[in-house]
Every structure is written in C-alpha cells, then in structure tokens.
TrEMBL record:
A Gene Ontology BP annotation from the UniProt entry: transmembrane transport
Compartments, record wording: Periplasm
Protein name: C4-dicarboxylate ABC transporter substrate-binding protein
Domain of life of the organism encoding this protein: Bacteria
Family statement: Belongs to the bacterial solute-binding protein 7 family.
Gene3D superfamilies: Bacterial extracellular solute-binding protein, family 7 (3.40.190.170)
Organism whose genome encodes this protein: Paracoccus methylarcula
Coiled-coil portions: none
Higher taxonomy: Bacteria, Pseudomonadati, Pseudomonadota, Alphaproteobacteria, Rhodobacterales
Signal sequence range: 1-24
NCBIfam families: TRAP_S1 (NF037995)
Pfam families linked to this entry: DctP (PF03480)
Keywords: Periplasm, Signal, Transport
InterPro entries xref list: DctP_fam (IPR018389), TRAP_DctP_sf (IPR038404)
Cellular component per GO, a single term: periplasmic space
Length: 282
C-alpha cells in the first residue's frame, strides 16, 4: 500500500458533513479520535485555481482541518499536476493516497462500462433530471460494482457543470457540418463514440493541452462546458461557440476502495461533504 502517513496505519479522505455543520463537527471529532495519528491525502483535479470547483475544495479542506483538529491533512493539486483523470484513476487503483475528480465516463474504463450511459447525449434535459438520476438505485448499483471490479470507491457523482457546447473557428449549426472535423473530446468511450457517429475525427487530447491544440490546428474544435472553456482562455484561440447542450456531465470524486475500507467507521461516516457540496453545483 502506498499511502503516505504521518504516523498512522489508517488512511483518510475528505470529511463528510451530514445534513448540518454541527453534525459534521461531531463526526469529524469522532473521526479524529479514532485515528492513531495525522494522515495525509492528496485531492487532484484538472481545472485551474480560478475555476468554480477549486474554491469549493478549499472550503472542504478548511472544514476538515477544523472538524478533525488538523488530524486529516489534505492538499489540493489543481491543473492536472498529478495527471489527468485517467492517470489519477490509475494511481487510485494502485492504492495511492489520492482523491480524484472525474466524470462518469472515466469510471467506465475501470471495469463498469455501464457508467458510459450517464454520459449519453441528450440524456438529462434539466439539472433536476440529472440529480434524480445520480441518486437513483441504478447509479448506486454501478457504484457497488465499481468497488468490487475496479477497486474504487465513489465518494460523489453529483457535481454538474452546464450542458456542453462546441467551440471552434466557425459555427456548426447542422450535424452534417461536423463531418471530418478534428474534434477534441474527453478520454471516455461515450464521448468518442458519439462524435464518431456524428462523423468527426475524435481526438482525446488532455484538457491542459487544448489551448495549444486549437492554436496550432491539431484540432479544429472542442466540445465542453462554456464556463470551463472560458476559464481556460480558449476563446483567445477559437472564437465561435455553437450551443448544442449535447452532454450534461456527471462529475464527482473517487478513491481507492482498499484505503476507504481501512478508515475507522467514524471517518467513513463523514465522507458526505463532497456529496453535499455537489448538490450545489451547476
């Protein structure tokens, strides 16, 4: 096992708040009491520090420090410093001490292909529809299968961005306009297959490399959330957005199942902060 500890044989992850902050504090205190020593965990995401997700994670880290009297030491690594979601997922399957931000499509590569369904085109017209699906028995069953087949524990899968659109050097008002276009897509089967069906040549380039890829003509266009693309300054190198709302991504966090299982019960009971904050995402 490759967890970095500061004196404990127990791994730890982000604290969970229950419904109220008072309950969260109580759970955090109990979690700290059951840990043998200070524990260290890394939180990985691929977005910049100015993206909406980063300050939310900073809130989590601050709450955890307060609620556990500093016994859970968490550090955020933004901008794919620890690799993209696929690389982070691989680290978690080898029991690295990492909590990683991912999409349902990424999880589909870890032994439960049914996660690709969640990234199907035009699946959830509204945010409420997506939240209902995230809380369904279907998704709960997938999460259980992932624990057994992929060795990963899903901590939350209800962090939603705005529906996705297409950014390029020209508009694409009709499906046939996409024929032959080199389209950057996430490294997830549902995305690749969808844009193959639409006649594009999908390119699974890391998001951190997309600015240069658009600038240098490696890709003609990219699909993504408008807010995320604007935050990455992609509009500097591609100036036309075609509103399509073709995907509403199911984002969330996961970690090693083995490391999660080693947590004291009190620490397992405090994992819901990520889930609670996810309900606030748009």
């Amino acid at each position: 096992m490759k967890v970095k500890f500061l004196g404990s044989t127990v791994s730890a992850m982000a604290v969970v708040a229950t419904v109220t902050m008072a309950q969260a504090a109580e759970n955090g205190a109990q979690c700290a009491a059951e840990l043998d020593g200070e524990a260290y965990f890394r939180i990985s995401h691929q977005n910049s520090t100015t993206s909406p997700i980063h300050p939310k994670l900073e809130e989590i880290v601050a709450d955890i420090g307060e609620q556990t009297d500093g016994k859970l030491k968490l550090e955020i690594f933004p901008a794919a410093q620890l690799g993209g979601p696929v690389q982070a997922l691989e680290q978690a399957t080898f029991d690295e001490n990492i909590i990683f931000y991912m999409s349902a499509g990424n999880l589909a590569t870890a032994g439960v292909a049914d996660y690709s369904i969640l990234n199907g085109p035009f699946l959830t017209p509204t945010l409420e529809d997506a939240q209902k699906l995230a809380a369904s028995d279907l998704v709960t069953e997938m999460n259980g299968q992932l624990s057994k087949k992929g060795g990963l524990r899903v901590l939350a899968l209800n962090w939603f961005d705005a529906p996705r659109s297409i950014l390029g050097h020209k508009p694409y008002p009709k499906p046939e306009d996409l024929s032959g276009i080199k389209m950057r897509v996430p490294e997830a089967p549902a995305y690749v297959r969808t844009f193959e069906v639409l006649g594009t040549a999908p390119q699974t380039i890391p998001f951190s490399e997309l600015y240069l890829a658009l600038q240098q003509g490696v890709v003609d266009a990219a699909e993504g959330g408008i807010r995320g693309m604007a935050d990455a300054n992609l509009m500097e190198v591609a100036d036309t957005v075609t509103i399509t709302d073709h995907f509403r991504l199911f984002y969330g966090f996961a970690m090693s199942e083995n490391l999660f299982s080693e947590l004291p019960i009190a620490c397992q009971d405090v994992r819901l902060l990520l889930d609670d904050l996810g309900k606030c995402q748009q």
